[in-house]
Amino acid sequence: MTPAERPAPLRANWPQRTHTCGELRLSHAAQAVTLNGWVHRRRDQGGLIFIDLRDRYGITQIVINRDEAPEAHEAAGSARSEYVLSVGGQVRARPEGTANPDLATGDIELGVHTVTVLAESKAPPFEITAETNVDESVRLRHRYLDLRRRRLRELIELRHEIVREMREYLWERSFLELETPTLVRSTPEGSRDFVVPSRLHPGNFYALPQSPQQMKQLIMVAGMDRYFQLARCYRDEDLRADRVFEHTQLDIEMAFVDREDILQLIESLYLQIVGKLSSQTLAEVPFPRISYAEAIRRFGTDKPDVRFGLELVDVAPDVTGRGFRAFDDAVDDGGQVKAVVAPGIAGYSRREVSALQDIVQESGAAGMATIALNDDGSIRSPLGRFFDEDSLRAAAQNAGASRGDLVCIVAGAPEIVAEALGTLRLHLGHALDLIQPDQLAFVWIIDFPLFEIDKESGGYTFSHNPFCSPADDSFGLLYSDPGRALSKQYDLVGNGHEIGGGSIRAHRAKDLRRIYQVMGYSEPEIDDSIGHMLEAFTYGAPPHGGIAMGVDRLAMILGGTENLRDVTVFPKNQAGFDLTLGAPGPLLPDQLAELHLRVREEQEESASAG
Ligand code: ASP
After folding, report:
1. In this model, does residue 610 exceed pLDDT 50?
2. Cis ω on the peptide bond leading into residue 286 (within 30° of 0)?
3. How far, in Å, from the CA of 546 to the mean position of ligand 1?
4. Whole-structure pTM over 0.70, yes or no?
5. How far is CA 290 from the centre of its chain?
6. pLDDT confidence of 133, banded at 50, 70, 90?
7. Rounded-to-integer distance, Cα 57 and Cα 221, Å
8. Is residue 15's pLDDT more than 90?
């Protein structure tokens, strides 16, 4: 059931309105009703005025006849687009041949005898009735008008339905819905915090939480073994298309569970949500599970879009040892030579191939070699100087290419090859229309490394979350070879987006302390950073784990939009401004003084300019 099809909820006989604008059918014929709504469209035919009256639930045609209701006709005559009206009248079947099959209320109209203008409206800066391509900043400034448009309203309603399903599902399973504070302590690890100055404690600052991670774990120590929260989380990041300052996550923590319990819980919740709220088809159930290493090997990324193939293949055995330096050197240096086989584009022009080369170079690769297996069986390749035609053909065929395909080869360090070919694969998936748009492909990524190398310090840092437990057979590696330790982290990826992730936690103080030691923390630094967690864990911490699922992302995927702003009631623009309310903005000198803050001059200037 889509949100629009839910029964309209106005059951009480409210004096202001008896029904919604989406509710009336032939079965209501002859009933006297009162509707409230906005003028969606108005057609004045002299003696007769037709108005499409709109509210959240739909549109009803109302008809005002000058002879039957002269006062109502006059009021309706003054109404313009987006005026708010209250209309009273009688439901009747539309005249023969004028029913509108596109409208749920299209069989009826309302013969109106009273019209009251509840509010006038200026001409809106863009049309509410149609899809509009007016500049997004205008739409964001008037977000309340944009939200009157059906497409946006339906996306926002879809989000609501998703949240309702989540809540009901978890309430039924004994989860406590708890609120953790939004004024917390700043932690230097992770992303940059948004901070809030303390008036009462000069020079001290709260931070807005990046996630309720530590608090939900402490809730487990408190014995409340099932917790969830629709948690707002904040990160002061540089903005990119898929990054925003604030997002909502379904935050879950459970005690006495292992990975399987959490994957099952989320998988069945998501199957339920998709079953009820989406007409998209699921690619594979149960959701496939792929190890991190396998995801990187096959797709070049740990967020694979598995709605299409084009998997990365190792071509090193076929193309090294022939004197082509770029390939040989890569392998000698511990790197790889891998390829993606692009179907049907052997005939790409030089310019088209060079556009693909640009893509891999922008993602860090030195270059890209190609082998085109032409339709007539001949070969076209810049590698011709180093390889005879038969070996090129064999290499292409071993890579899985058929006639008409273009083999795109990249050599280099494993991370670079993965990044470049992963990006190229995704580009080709879209460009060659290999993705079925109504498909939903969820996949679990498991067995992540516990640590990764920090690019700045060269030492170890956590790969996802410092509270994550090592895999059962990796505890020893914490002492012998931490770089090889795997973790109990899991991510859920949907259509190539990371839509959730979590882990079973290191619940013994000794293990958590060791993880911080591996990351190079001194004992005082450990105590300062997580002393409170270590102490809590000495008082009987149950084994526990959890997950956080992105609500915005899920709504975006199920709603079939590529834009997070579409599923957010009041989104910021791409520069992080709230154009509706005008945030961020400067503070008055008095407010600054009270907060013990002084703004440096150059910032004052740019703040007032912004
Ligand atoms: N705290 C993690 C996050 O916000 C999720 C988790 O491990 O539960 O991404």
Report:
1. no
2. yes
3. 8
4. yes
5. 21
6. confident
7. 46
8. no
Dihedral class, residue 134 (left if φ above 0, else alpha if ψ from -120 to 50, else beta): beta
Q: Which residue has the tokens 């009041």?
A: 570
What is the topology classification, in CATH, of domain 153-282+443-567? BirA Bifunctional Protein; domain 2 (3.30.930)
CATH superfamily of 308-435: GAD-like domain (3.30.1360.30)
Q: Whose CA is nearest to atom 1 of ligand 1?
A: 213
pLDDT in tens, 95-116: 999 999 999 999 999 999 999 9
The Å distance, Cα 180 to ligand 1 centre, comes to 14
Distance 213 CA to ligand 1 centre (A): 6
Q: Is 88 in the pocket of ligand 1 (CB under 6 A)?
A: no
Q: What tokens appear for 75 in the block?
A: 């009021």
**Residue 465 CA: which ligand 1 atom is closest?**
7
For the chain, give every residue range classified as CATH 3.30.1360.30.
308-435
Superfamily of domain 3-119: Nucleic acid-binding proteins (2.40.50.140)
Q: Check pLDDT > 70 for residue 139.
A: yes
The predicted pLDDT at position 607 comes to: 57
d(CA 260, CA 344): 41
What is the distance between the alpha carbons of residues 490 and 266, in angstroms, rounded to a whole number? 12
pLDDT value, residue 4: 47
The torsion of the CA quartet 428, 432, 434, 440, rounded to 10 degrees, works out to 70
By DSSP bridging, strand 451-453 and strand 460-462 are antiparallel
Q: Where in the chain is the domain with CATH 2.40.50.140?
A: 3-119
pLDDT at 142 over 60: yes
Element (H, E) at 314: strand 313-314
Residues of the chain with CATH 3.30.930.10: 153-282+443-567
Tens of pLDDT, residue by residue over 118-132, are 999 999 999 887 777
Using the structure block, give the residue that is written with the tokens 């929260």: 229
Among 249, 265, 505, 551, the mutation site with the greatest number of ligand 1 atoms within 8 A of its Cβ is 249
Does ligand 1 come within 6 angstroms of the Cβ of 489? no
Where does the pLDDT of residue 1 fall: very low under 50, low under 70, confident under 90, or very high at 90 and above?
very low
Picking from 104, 83, 90, the residue whose alpha carbon sits closest to that of residue 62 is: 90
pLDDT tens across 534-575, in order?
A: 999 999 999 999 999 999 999 999 999 989 999 999 999 989
